[in-house]
Amino acid sequence: VRSTSIASIESCSNSTLRFDYFSRGSGGRKPRPGSLHQMGALTVSFLEMFLKFQLRAKHSLDEREEAHEHIWRIEVGVTGDIQQGRIASMPHLRAVLEPAVSALQGKFLNAEPLLDPDTRAFPTCEHLAYYFEAEFKKRLTTENIPVKLTQIQVFVDELSGEETGSAKLTLSRD
Q: How far apart are CA 160 and CA 157, in angstroms?
């Protein structure tokens, strides 16, 4: 078995399906729409769906003590069993997760009571990734959505659009 490629399907606004596949022998076939499970010599090994969110919020850190605003981008990956050709309904999943992001919209993160004390003290991409992990898991459980979080990446951008950096929390696939 040899790895042949990673394919990406853009679907719906701000959402991505990504899957790895393996083929046996030479001339592995490419995925066909509607055939995500097994396609002859092609077997899907791991499928993730990604949703992207964005918020504007202020914070203050040692490097820049004065409160300043950033654009924060959050990308969340989920996996699960494919039913009706998809891992989950993207619009429904977005509606379930969006309130966790919206709750921080326009806030000063250092003083936001929704965040734990460590995150308020250091509202960084790393701490926000853990905050969103907990919030997203809680919402997925409450809504009984049968998906599993695989990753959360939080990007921080200047208002000019320049990306400052990001932190990626990768969760176990087990």
A: 8
Q: How far is CA 25 from CA 35, 41, 115, in A?
A: 20, 8, 52
**Beta strand residue intervals within 85-162, DSSP E:** 148-157
CA distances from 128 to 83, 85, 163 (A): 31, 32, 16
Select the more confidently predicted residue: 7 or 108.
108
Of 146, 151, 153, nearest in space to 173 by CA: 151
Q: First and final CA of the chain: distance in angstroms?
A: 22
CA distances from 27 to 1, 2, 5, 39 (A): 12, 11, 12, 13
Q: Which two tokens stand for residue 129?
A: 């990734």
- pLDDT for the residue 64: 78
What integer best gives the mean pLDDT of the chain?
82
pTM equals 0.75
Q: Is residue 115 within 8 Å of 124, Cβ to Cβ?
A: no
Q: What is the β-pairing status of strands 68-79 and 15-23? A: unpaired
